[in-house]
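Just curious. Protein, please.
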Amino acid sequence: KRIVDFLKQSQVQYLATVGVDGKPKVRPFQFMFEEEGRLYFCTGNQKPVFRELGQNPFVEFCASGPQFSWLRLSGKAVFSDDLAVKAKVQEVSPLVKSIYQTPDNPVFEVFYLEQGVATIADFSGNPPQTIVL
């Protein structure tokens, strides 16, 4: 719950991948929702990030929060073709619905994190909190 609350509060997260050129790539991303312990995100299969995740599915997200806190979330991106999940993504994000229109759009891709580990930290001097998903 703490991770989900942090992601919702931050609104925009930054996703780091290994580019197809072998160099790091970072771009803004948005958390969609959590279901059955899975954190869901989405993209289009015509974007470079989709190709990058196909080549190397291990990612890390970073988000900032209040009082100079931050979250680092790493894991393996696993794509899902579940139309119910895709419909829920479009339900929670009018922006995503405006881009992809329908859950069965062949360009629309949804993924969740597997083997996830989150670290929440700040500049308080307290040790970071690590949560295994």
Summary: The chain has a mean pLDDT of 96. Residues 83-92 form the longest helix (10 residues). The first strand starts at residue 13 and ends at 18. DSSP finds four helices and eight strands in the chain.
